[in-house]
TrEMBL record:
Residues 27-92 form the Adaptor protein ClpS core domain. It comes from Tessaracoccus antarcticus. It comes from the Bacteria. This is ATP-dependent Clp protease adapter ClpS. The lineage of its organism: Bacteria, Bacillati, Actinomycetota, Actinomycetes, Propionibacteriales. Keywords: Hydrolase, Protease.
């Protein structure tokens, strides 16, 4: 690749910089579960184990983060996956939103 950002015309293979690396972070979203006055801490941990298949230790750690800090990021991925996770959390009666990572 030449200094001007154009492929070189010499012998060999021209390699273009991949813009995917820059857009990977832009395409990442997170699901956030918020603390609420309704659900028991044990229920929140149960939901994380049941839906996300997290081990008990991780589920309890996330539940404590929700309880003590008011929120926790419980999953990361593309927008469609996070929309699915948010809907699932809401179906379990948890308060959940999504935002760009």
């Amino acid at each position: 690749m030449s200094e001007q950002g154009r492929p070189s015309t010499g012998t060999g293979v021209a390699v273009m910089d991949a813009p995917e690396a820059a857009t990977d972070l832009a395409s990442q979203w997170v699901t956030i579960v918020w603390d609420d006055p309704v659900n028991l801490m044990s229920y929140v941990a149960y939901v994380f184990m049941e839906y996300f298949k997290y081990p008990r230790m991780k589920a309890e750690k996330l539940m404590l983060q929700v309880h003590t800090h008011g929120k926790a990021v419980v999953s990361t991925g593309n927008r469609e996956s996070m929309e699915r996770d948010v809907m699932a959390m809401q179906n379990y009666t948890l308060w959940a939103t999504m935002e760009r990572a």
